[in-house]
């Protein structure tokens, strides 16, 4: 099968599944006084019902953490070979109909950083104990992602402006770059909120705020235009493109969580009371995401009922995770 960067959506999806139980355990279940790690959970003191409840969550986290890391290694090898073939890369990046897929590897690598800090550290107490010493390498990694995503965005924008594009055929896969911006923001804001070194935290916070502003601008602009196109159109896109509507949900959540973490940074280092902002950022983003999800389910009800299982697999289905 010929390599395409969009295949990284597979590893992004696996990472997303791994993060779901991790976030649930950190923020919904009792925290036992600190962030939950595998060996901190008092398994022997839990009831049978609690064990039955927690074991599947831990199992899902383990399976999909390993899956994400394995997929990332395999896809990175293919990506390096693909980039080495200048002809294939240039053909792909200069085609405005498909070049938005070039942002998928950035999204996946951003997800990897969050998998290492979260689910992987959950299983490896040694990693958890040295998390602060990883903040500087993490900042350098974030800086590399920051530079690459900005360079790619400007390159893709230039190609869009200098090549004729049939805008009426745009669909929600056009938001792939915004999705990547959201994951890069999540990585940077994680460093800003977690690092105890004020310089590292401040650099990460500034870098995050910069890409967050660009990401939100792109999101509002693109989503507004896509909604306009859909209203103007007399029908929904082709079946393989329909699941891309759900991509709006993780984007909203990623920006909301990133803003939440930036507020935590301000509270920690500047003693600013951000309680109202924390409440609004999380609740507003999740209420908006849930509302969009309900709208998508209603809009695509015929597709979900009749075609979702029967239709051929398309990469856009990963957006539903």
General description of the model:
With 321 residues, the protein is mainly α. It has 2 domains: 130 residues; 180 residues. The protein is 71% helix and 0% strand. It is built from 11 helices and no strands. Helix 4 packs parallel to helix 7. 35% of the residues are buried.
| Residue windows where pLDDT falls under 50 for at least 5 positions | none
Mean pLDDT over the residues:
88
Name the overall outline. globular
**Kindly, what is the distance between the CA atoms of the first and last residues, rounded to a whole number of angstroms?**
24 Å
User: Could you tell me the number of beta strands?
Assistant: 0
The helix content is over 70%
Secondary-structure element order, N to C: HHHHHHHHHHH
What's the alpha carbon Rg, rounded to whole Å?
20 Å
Ordered list of secondary-structure elements with their pairings:
Blueprint: H1 8-27, H2 48-84, H3 86-93, H4 104-123, H5 125-129, H6 135-162, H7 176-194, H8 198-232, H9 248-270, H10 275-299, H11 301-307
């Amino acid at each position: 099968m010929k390599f395409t960067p969009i295949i990284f959506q597979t590893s992004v999806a696996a990472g997303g599944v791994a993060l779901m139980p991790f976030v649930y355990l950190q923020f919904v279940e009792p925290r036992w006084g600190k962030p939950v790690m595998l060996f901190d959970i008092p398994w022997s003191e839990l009831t049978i019902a609690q064990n039955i409840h927690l074991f599947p969550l831990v199992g899902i986290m383990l399976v999909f953490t390993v899956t994400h890391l394995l997929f990332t290694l395999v896809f990175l090898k293919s990506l390096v070979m693909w980039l080495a073939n200048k002809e294939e890369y240039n053909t792909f990046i200069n085609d405005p109909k498909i070049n938005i897929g070039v942002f998928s590897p950035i999204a996946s690598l951003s997800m990897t950083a969050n998998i290492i800090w979260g689910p992987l550290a959950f299983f490896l107490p040694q990693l958890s104990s040295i998390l602060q010493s990883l903040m500087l390498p993490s900042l350098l990694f974030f800086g590399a992602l920051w530079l690459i995503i900005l360079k790619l965005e400007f390159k893709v924008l230039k190609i869009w402006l200098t090549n004729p594009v049939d805008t009426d055929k745009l669909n929600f896969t056009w938001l792939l770059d915004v999705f990547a911006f959201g994951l890069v923001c999540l990585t940077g804001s994680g460093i800003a909120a977690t690092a105890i070194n004020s310089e590292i935290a401040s650099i990460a916070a500034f870098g995050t705020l910069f890409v967050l502003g660009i990401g939100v601008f792109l999101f509002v602009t693109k989503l507004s235009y896509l909604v306009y196109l859909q209203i103007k159109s007399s029908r929904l896109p082709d079946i393989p493109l329909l699941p891309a509507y759900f991509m709006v949900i993780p984007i909203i959540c990623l920006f909301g969580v990133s803003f939440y973490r930036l507020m935590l940074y301000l509270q920690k280092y500047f003693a600013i009371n951000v309680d109202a902002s924390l409440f609004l950022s999380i609740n507003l983003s999740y209420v908006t995401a849930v509302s969009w999800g309900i709208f998508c389910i209603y809009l695509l009800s015929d597709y979900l009922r009749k075609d979702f299982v029967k239709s051929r697999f398309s990469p856009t289905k990963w957006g539903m995770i």
